[in-house]
Amino acid sequence: MSNLAKRLIFAFTAMPIVAFLLWFGDYTRWALLLFLAAASAYEWSKMVTAAFPEENFTSTVSPFCAMILTVPWIMDDTSLILPILTVVIFAYIVMAFAYIDVKNLFPWLTLQMTGPLYLGLWGGISIRLFESGQGWLQCSKFMIVMMTLWGCDSAAYFAGKYLGKRKFSPQISPKKTWEGSIGGTLFAIFWFWIWTRTGFGYTVFDISLAATLGLGFVIAVAGQLGDLLISALKRWSGIKDSGEFFPGHGGVLDRADSFYLAAPVATIILLSYYST
Question: Could you write out the DSSP letters of every residue in 29-51?
Answer without folding.
Answer: HHHHHHHHHHHHHHHHHHHHHTT
